UniProtKB/TrEMBL annotation:
Short name of one Pfam family: DUF1885
Domain of life according to the entry: Bacteria
Protein name: DUF1885 family protein
Classification of source organism: Bacteria, Bacillati, Bacillota, Bacilli, Bacillales
UniProt-listed InterPro entries: DUF1885, Rbstp2229-like_sf
Amino acid sequence: MSLNAYIKLVPASEKQVISVEEVKDMLIYYRSITAKTGEQLSWGYSEAAFPYTIEEKEEADGDWFYLKGIDPRKNKYILIGVGAEKEAESEEKSNYIQVSLTDISTHGDKGKANEFCKFLASKLKGELHLFNGRVMYYYPKK
């Protein structure tokens, strides 16, 4: 059974709409800052922090992409997509990022997916709905 986590963009978020390309750019930024940490420590931290390649299939139509593990014994796949849902009490649509684990995803994938979700939610100041159903709020409260 696959698991899903969501980063919802709320009115207090940095952005109200996000594209797949922007999410990819944020993950590339994450990879670059972890590589810099590795350089400072004189350790290959970037491979441990981001052990994936960013891949996209033709049938995705720009709606989703996946992270493919470099070492298949430790990491397999994480799917990432964007979408919008209609709010129950109003006619407005709220946008979200969906992070999914497949049936063959490993525990390492789940740990990294949680890490990536927290990074994305903190950068966007969103509302993070974790795989276990808990919610973390990264946006400023009034």
